[in-house]
Amino acid sequence: MLVANTINLSNQQVFAQYQKANQQILDVRTAVEWSHGIAQGAHCISLVDIQTQNQSKLAKLDKNTTYFVMCQTGQRSQIAIAQLQQLGFNKLFHAFEGYKKWQEQGLPTEIPNLDTSSVRYSRHHQLHGFGEKAQEKLTKSSILLIGAGGLGSPAALYLAAAGVGTITLIDDDIVSLSNLQRQVIHTTESIGELKVESAKRQLTALNPEITIQIIAEKINPDNAQALIAKADVAIDGSDNLATRYLVNDICCQLNKPLVYAAVFQYEAQITSFDFRQQNSPCLRCLFPQTAGFEPENCSTVGVLGVVPAIAGIMQASEAIKLMTDVGETLQNKLQIIDLFDNSFRSIKYKKDTNCQHCFQNSNQD
After folding, report:
1. pTM of structure
2. Collapsed DSSP state (helix, strand, coil) of residue 110
3. Is 251 a catalytic residue?
4. Could you report the per-residue pLDDT of 68-100, keeping only the tens digit for each?
């Protein structure tokens, strides 16, 4: 661990000096902390941005300026000073008492004019391996969510909260009372309303900074290609094989990543098909189509309400990883979660060289 080599100054000593020319308080706390107040005139840069050497933020600092480095209580500021010294900043003093005492001492403060997104997504910004770069990718991304029901509800909520720039919802169904046991994006007041309209209202209330587009139709061979072509990632929240195969085939054809999930009673299955990769298998490799077969669904055999919630949230997680290239996805792995006995299994699978769809498609690339 780096050790700061600097002089400690009390808040009163800092106050007596910091408003002189080429002298400034440097606040290294987080955006959430800044939103509650900073020392008047302070320059804000988080410790994470210093540690990760965020060049867009560091470029705003001047090595000829004297900085009084401050955090909340004097701990993070020591780390920040040591890091900044490694980067060639030498005119640094430690405001060791921190902002908490600055406020208690009645020294001048102000509420900074922050970009609201820096506060909203601050936990992503602070997340090692994610940060502002991944968040910016999310903000610029577009996702197609097929179905606003049991899987689509939790997926949509968490994708909206995460800041995905554009979410397109397609579903022609209306909200019914039996939906509310698991489709948590809808409320009792939504009964009789189109699911996409109910969902849009909730998502907009959660995050008005993103764009929600709704289509009150079923996805079908006439509209699937145009809709999927506009998306960076597709999430399949449908409940029938015909739709699942259709979405799979179009995503494969267009090289668009697809996140798949299905639920049955107490069990959830989740996987991803990253068709940007030439050797990606497809849904037909995992579940070859059988003429006349249609599995039972929730309306006939029931489902524990939290099962689609877990599956939908995992779909959202997979989509975020695919859009940001952060973390390992479930490509080539089928994750099976059984809440009846709390078992978790991961089954590996690969491209079927006899698959008449994805194998031929990959050979055409």
Report:
1. 0.82
2. strand
3. no
4. 999 999 999 999 999 999 999 999 999 999 999
